[in-house]
Amino acid sequence: MIQLFNVSKIYHGDVPALEGITMRITKGEFVFITGKSGAGKTTLLRLIFRAELPTKGSVLVNNFNIARLQRHSIPFLRRNIGVVFQDFKLLPQKTVFENVAFALEVLGTPKREMNQRIMHVLQYLGLKNKRDMFPLRLSGGEQQRVAIARAIINNPPILLADEPTGNLDPEISLEIMHVFEDLHRQGSTVVVATHDVDLIKKIRKKVFCLDKGKLIDVIAEEEIAST
Ligand SMILES: Nc1ncnc2c1ncn2[C@@H]1O[C@H](COP(=O)(O)OP(=O)(O)OP(=O)(O)O)[C@@H](O)[C@H]1O
Ligand SMILES: [Mg+2]
């Protein structure tokens, strides 16, 4: 589903943000990307949703080399990928409902059905009674759940999350991770970048470890369970 072949990314100068990365994430897998600050986690995610192009090597999503996608095909790639960020990136002047509605592809869907879909997602994330509130009046965990609602409203098969719990306390972080686990159980491919080692130990999924732009280790789920 997601494959990188010998991928390097150099923003400028000669220090690569990523160097010689080859990895594969299969359909329906849940994986962590970890590593210290500056290791290249965000860059790796940005390459997958084509916010950046690799300097070298190729990134394949659903067997398409995304660097070769024509401009008009980029929305099709993005439709397959939901993204969640550390700072939520919600629209402050829109309500919870409106934030999610804004992301919904219209595609001629009747308004009533759209409303039903949004309410279904809000209910799933425990946000039904927050629908008319503005993001800044919500707790961090609630804001992140709104961001997740927005990311999954179009049922993308792939969900990417960049330090999704970086602004949350440990208990709420675990709750958010349980949401990702649940989405994974429902069939989504989930990729979470985090430097939170405690969280990784609790959730126990495959881990790709980056260090200074290089993939230095891949730890299988079973290995984490035994540590
Ligand atoms: N837009 C950019 N322009 C130039 N350099 C960048 C850019 N984005 C990242 N870098 C550099 O690339 C390297 C990897 O950064 P990246 O943000 O991918 O790391 P990270 O693992 O996500 O770090 P953090 O844990 O702090 O979020 C760093 O040296 C960073 O300074
Ligand atoms: Mg980052």
Automatic annotation (TrEMBL):
Family annotation (Gene3D superfamilies): P-loop containing nucleotide triphosphate hydrolases
Q: Which stretches make up the ABC transporter domain?
A: 2-227
Q: Which domain of life is it from?
A: Bacteria
**Any Gene Ontology CC annotation:** plasma membrane
- Per the record, the coiled-coil ranges are none
User: Which of UniProt's keywords are assigned here?
Assistant: ATP-binding, Cell cycle, Cell division, Cell membrane, Membrane, Nucleotide-binding
User: Where does this one sit in the cell?
Assistant: Cell membrane
Membrane topology is: Peripheral membrane protein
What's a single GO BP term from this record?
cell division
Q: Which InterPro entries match?
A: AAA+_ATPase, ABC_transporter-like_ATP-bd, ABC_transporter-like_CS, ABC_transpr_LolD-like, Cell_div_FtsE, P-loop_NTPase
Record has Membrane as a keyword: yes
Q: Which Pfam families match?
A: ABC_tran
Q: Name one GO molecular function term.
A: ATP hydrolysis activity
Q: What does this protein do?
A: Part of the ABC transporter FtsEX involved in cellular division.
Family as reported in the entry's similarity comment? Belongs to the ABC transporter superfamily.
Assembly description: Homodimer. Forms a membrane-associated complex with FtsX.
Q: Which NCBIfam families match?
A: FtsE
Identify this protein by name: Cell division ATP-binding protein FtsE
Q: What organism, scientifically named, is this protein from?
A: Vecturithrix granuli
Q: Which gene encodes it?
A: ftsE
